Amino acid sequence: MMMMMMQRPATTNTTTVGESSSVPSTAVDSAQVQTTTTSTPVQQADPASSSTLSLIKKRPVVSKTQDNDDDHRLSIKKVIALIIASIVLYVVAIRSICLPHGYHSYYHPLFRFITFPSDATITASGGQQHGRSLQAVPPHDGKQQKERVLYIVTTLAEYNTGSRKTVKGSDRLQETLIPVMSESVQTMLNAGYHVDVFLVCHYILRPERYQLVRDALPESVGLDFWNSATPLGYDTGKNPFTKLQNRTLHLARQHRFVIKDKLTKYDLFACFEDDMVIHGKQIEHFIAVTKELFRLRETAPDSIPLPDKVKADEHYHGPLTKSMLKRMIPGFIRVEVLLDEDKFPAQKSTGPVPIDLEFSSSSPGGKEEQVSPEYCCHVAPQTSNAHIPESPSADKLMLWETNVLPLGVRQMPENSWLDWVVMLRGPNQNKLEPNEVIGDYWSNRDRKYWSKDEAGGRRPAPQEFKYINNQGGWMATREQLWEWHTEICPGGFLPPYEAPHYRYDGLDMRNVEWYSGGMQLSTIRHACNMQRIIAIDHPANFSKSLLYHSANNKQQQLAGEGKREWFVKANTLLGQLNAIRKQASKDILR
Q1: Which of 335, 382, 347 has its CA nearest to residue 178?
Q2: What's the pTM?
């Protein structure tokens, strides 16, 4: 049976306590099974032997009709056996082509309800075996306890290729992935979470390299990985399809298969690229905001009347409907630490919007407050190196994927601790019902800072890529994932990837950020069209929504492309949003 797209089989390896077996140093794709046929010579019976003669003598005489009936029955049995064998071979072939090897979840549409047993657990060689596997995750006993977190890391390169201002040939596994993973996991453990790690690798993680990763994790943390996880497919931008290739663009998609397989085993899934530092405080804040949004939904009205002469997308305060709150999720902004401001400084001009860092509720006497870098960007001494400073100051944090121009703020309902939030860009609300539209107060409302004829006089479109701010990953609770998959996201959020919302099994020309950066969640084209929010009422809450891009290479890469004016300091954005918040508060009282 010809298939348009094929899924590369992969090897899933797990460390289990007490096992002593080892993996050979040369890794072999487990889907490439070599079958050897051992032929045994058949002894020919001697016609002259007494045993043979006795058998011949004792054979009953049967009629020709009876022989025909026996032959007919035998033919039917052969046909049935052939059909069964064909089905088995087809299922095995489909599994080899379409499945992440070793997974229980089978997602080919013809066999959606068929499951396969996992492959045998194997242990990496080298060093003492320790730590537990993901399959050994403790059951949830129903008692009050911290969430179980599966931290999924997608990694394209074991060694840097030299692109995007990296050093060609440098050991990315040891210099980036392991320090970032170890830092993230330890802070999650310090926050009280039960954590396991799953690596989705483009390359083959050899036993000795696996051991480096395993040794960097505490024994309580489970570790699993998927080797050669990149799917095989065609370049769908070229027609006709003639050549199968590694679709590295769609390695970003593969974490979804892991989530589907592990959905019932964890409370929260954090899926990020291998250079994104994720701290326990950020997970705590994400869960707190998520719970608050669910709490508000319980008592929210189904509809609200709009004030006279006010458009739904400009109504920025007061109650929110259930549908509005259902579309809201906590958001993040990526930041880097400026390493050399003489060579790669932030923007020269911050624009006409003032920078106001006085937060009246938290800084009596007019004391200025700044972003708190410890939440995102302070790392342990063993994590720091020449490119990842240990304790950067607040004025060193820089973002490059949005600025104040397209953004707007909103006041949350009075009974919420969230108070004021900034609405990140991405969703298109033009075709939504009025009770689904979430309005905001645009930074240039009433042309206060830019005139109609100036560059900032027009609000950029929600989908303008320059301002959407890729997060480098996303996180979600199990409840959120189920709701996204079954109610919110067209075509579902998890596999299978089926038409009309997914083409070619999801291997079409969607960019990396669509799958791995959270853009599927916050954009509209065959996507979930949800609204990301970040609290701005207090610098600490804003700071917990900043994610550290520890590669710190965008400042060099974009400066070389003449995009220095994209570099906005985190303090600058926070101060400008605070100024917009204060102006919006005054306008409510008009």
Answers
A1: 382
A2: 0.78
